[in-house]
């Protein structure tokens, strides 16, 4: 989660929201959240799991 | 409890212990290192019904307790509560705001359990004068030419 927050704090173009999956089950189901963390970029699920910073940033930018 | 033994509603401004004493000491030390003030804006409003089996909690009230509890630990952290402010699609939510500015950093839901660490980590990062990312990451992000929304689904356990 912190890498997403750090990206938002570093760029005025990026927003980062943690969403507690149990509290918002309809949205979690819609985005097929079966495991966490599930990273969704621009409303599209991209990957599950924690990754190192360079991988995170590269994947985010590749998804944009 | 009052004199009759009945529970009274807890005021939003009443400090609440959200951490064990040893954890609280550590978090106080970390928050002492904030280089700029951070505001926590707690947005309250209609809440989605959680999954069956979820704990029977008033999620909004608990979110307020957590945010006010954190603000009690440092003069550099403040907390404000609003009802259904604009720009919040889900409630409760906590916006983490460096110097009171909306930087697009938010936690939707109740940051309890393991996720309390995400909220505290977000506050610590928002309180940094310089971004916490590596220079090469900052350089890559600088090439971004469109708005980008990152949503990270989490659970407290």
Describe the structure.
The complex is a heterodimer of chains A (64) and B (157). In chain A, 41% of the residues lie in helices and 25% in strands. Chain A is α+β, with helices and mostly antiparallel strands and 64 residues long. In chain A, strands 2-3 form a two-stranded antiparallel ribbon. The two termini of chain A are 18 Å apart. Chain B has 157 residues and is an alpha+beta fold. Chain B has a four-stranded mixed beta sheet, covered by helices on one side. The longest helix of chain B has 13 residues, at 59-71. Chain B is globular and about 45 Å long. The chains are: A alpha+beta (64), B alpha+beta (157). At the A-B interface, helix 1, strand 1, helix 2, strand 2 and helix 3 of A face strand 4, helix 3, helix 4 and strand 5 of B. Strand 1 of chain A pairs parallel with strand 4 of chain B.
Properties at a glance:
heterodimer; A: 64 residues; alpha+beta; two-stranded antiparallel ribbon; 3 helices; globular; B: 157 residues; four-stranded mixed sheet; 5 strands; 28% helix
Summarize this, please?
The complex is a heterodimer of chains A (64) and B (157). Chain A is α+β, with helices and mostly antiparallel strands and 64 residues long.
Give the mean pLDDT of chain B.
Answer: 88
- How do the SSEs of chain B run, as a string of H and E? HEHEEEHHE
Assembly category? heterodimer
C-alpha end-to-end distance of chain B: 31 Å
Let me know the number of strands of chain A: 3
Report mean pLDDT of chain A, rounded to a whole number.
96
Give the helix tally of chain B.
4
Give the terminus-to-terminus CA distance of chain A.
Answer: 18 Å
Silhouette of chain B: globular
* Radius of gyration of chain A using CA atoms only: 12 Å
Strand order, main sheet of chain A: write it out.
Answer: 2-3
Stretches with pLDDT under 50, minimum 5 residues of chain B = 1-16
> How does the overall form of chain A come out from the CA principal axes?
globular
User: Which structural class best describes the helix and strand composition of chain A?
Assistant: alpha+beta
Helix content of chain B: 25-40%
């Amino acid at each position: 989660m912190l890498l997403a927050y750090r990206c938002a704090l570093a760029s005025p173009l990026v927003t980062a929201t943690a969403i507690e999956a149990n509290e918002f089950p309809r949205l979690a189901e819609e985005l097929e959240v079966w495991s966490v963390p599930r990273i969704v970029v621009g409303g599209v699920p991209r990957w599950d799991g924690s990754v190192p910073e360079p991988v995170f940033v590269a994947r985010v930018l590749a998804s944009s | 409890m009052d004199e009759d033994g009945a529970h009274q509603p807890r005021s939003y401004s009443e400090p609440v212990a959200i951490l064990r004493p040893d954890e609280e000491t550590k978090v106080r030390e970390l928050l002492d290192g904030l280089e700029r003030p951070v505001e926590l804006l707690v947005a309250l409003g209609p809440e989605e019904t959680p999954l069956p089996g979820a704990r029977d909690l008033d999620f909004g009230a608990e979110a307020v307790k957590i945010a006010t509890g954190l603000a009690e630990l440092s003069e550099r952290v403040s907390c404000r509560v609003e009802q259904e402010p604009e720009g919040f699609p889900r409630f409760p939510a906590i916006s983490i705001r460096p110097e009171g500015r909306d930087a697009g950093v938010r936690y939707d839901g109740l940051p309890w359990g393991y996720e309390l660490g995400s909220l505290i980590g977000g506050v610590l990062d928002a309180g940094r004068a310089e971004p916490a990312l590596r220079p090469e990451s900052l350089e890559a992000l600088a090439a971004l030419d469109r708005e980008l929304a990152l949503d990270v689904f989490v659970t407290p356990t």
